[in-house]
Amino acid sequence: MTDSENNENNENSTRVPLHERRRPVWHWQRLARSRPRLAVIMAVTGAVVGALLGGAGVAWQAEAGPFAEDRACWGAFSRDDAAALFEGRSGGTADVKSSEVPITSDRTGAEGSSGQCLLTSDGSRITVQAHQLDTRFGGAGDQWADEFLSARLTPLGGGLLGMASDTRAWLAVPDGCIGRPRDADITGGPTVIDLATGWTLYDDEVGAAARDRLARAVVGLVNHYMAEKGCTGTIADPTGRMPEPPRFLDEKKDAMCGVKGLPLPRGYGRDSLGRTLVTRGTGPVRTCDRRVLFHHPELRLMTVEDPRLAMLYARLSQDGAKKRIKAGEHDGYGFVRDDMGMFQAECQTGPVTFLIRADSGRRPVDIRTLLPRYVAAEADRIGCGPLRITLPADG
Fold first, then answer.
1. CB neighbour list of residue 319: distance below 8 Å, 6 or more residues apart
2. 3-class secondary structure for 119-135?
3. Which of 38, 135, 176, 337 gives a 20 to 30 Å CA spacing to 230?
4. How far is CA 265 from CA 46, 280, 366, in A?
5. Rounded to whole angstroms, how far apart are CA atoms 226 and 132?
6. Residues 234-244 pLDDT 10s
């Protein structure tokens, strides 16, 4: 597609408002196996969900309707592909409808490509989005990181910048073809395509078959995107090299989140903060989540190892607080406050972000106690140590 065609599409397409882009939806497959949990959630949020679904037609009215030329999501999915996402098998007979906003770029190309696709079948929905990750706090106000850097997701492996679970999958377009809006934009976030099938019930274990299905789907989306850009290479099926899905962790008192030498603070037992889940596999992130509600963890410890993702936290690391964390002269920068501690180190492979975040500021002493030990232990694990940080005086 030429630049002039992109501009014309950009002018004629209906843009989806930001608040419409990530509507929470119920995931039919997981709710069917958790009736008591469903009853509680529906009682609390039924009115909200109804309002959102009522407005969906407005948000997706551009190009709404059945498949164009029997293909969906910008031509990436056949009818059989789409039906398999809903039914879990090839050759399915699900009646799937597709609504989409074409992938376009702004006039200057500074904000990267963006587009949305919605698949619906018998009251269930799958949302696909192409966008450049915002460098303000983990993608976009940390909402993207909450969902797509969750401990439930496992890395795709093979050097790919992407992850998948049984309800979420994402993959960055390789920089060379063409994952960044401009050649000179080495500090911008990567362009990703992500896929979401609805709410995740975090007390359930991750289903490997569903995870692999979404991993293949997001690779197919990126391959199609690159082909449309004139790229000749393709990304192979990643499922054979992916590690097993994560399992809930039985923590030891001297190894919070499985990190040796990180003591479990008093009151942070299983009963108080729920079950603990830790990312399995190598890079691009290692996340430890406790008590996740509507995709937001009550406590998260995260190491962002891939420099392309770590740059999403660079601005926050520098501007997060007036009193900065100190380390060696060229080791990095960060901050600590009542609800969060963060340090971004300059390692041999590039920037690496270490983060501890709570959903409130009720336990600031724990944040201050955990952060130096967490940074030291994780830096040693990934070969970025020794790294010893000094916190500013309290208050």
1. none
2. EEECCEEEEEEEEECEC
3. 135
4. 37, 23, 7
5. 15
6. 999 999 999 99
Q: Which amino acid is at 347?
A: C
Long-range contacts of 59-64 (CB under 8 A, 24+ apart): 59/16, 59/17, 59/20, 59/23, 60/16, 60/99, 60/100, 60/101, 60/116, 60/118, 61/14, 61/99, 62/13, 62/14, 62/99, 62/100, 62/101, 63/99, 63/100, 63/101, 63/102, 64/99
Residue with tokens 């050649």: 183
In angstroms, the CA 214 to CA 85 distance is 8
CA atoms within 13 A on the CB side of 386: 1
Per-residue tokens: 19: 């608040």
pTM to 2 decimal places: 0.80
Question: Is 269 exposed, middle or buried, given 0-12, 13-18 or 19+ CB atoms closer than 10 A?
Answer: exposed
The answer to whether the peptide bond before residue 386 is cis (omega within 30 degrees of 0) is yes
Q: Compute the distance between CA of residue 2 and CA of residue 97 in angstroms, rounded to an integer.
A: 28
- Name the one residue in this structure whose structure tokens are 């770590």: 310
At 167-192, the pLDDT tens digits run 999 999 998 776 654 544 556 789 99
Q: Is the pLDDT of residue 271 over 90?
A: no
Measure Cα distances from 2 to 41, 73, 84, 104, 228 in Å: 47, 20, 33, 11, 11
How far is it, in rounded angstroms, from Cα 302 to Cα 245? 18
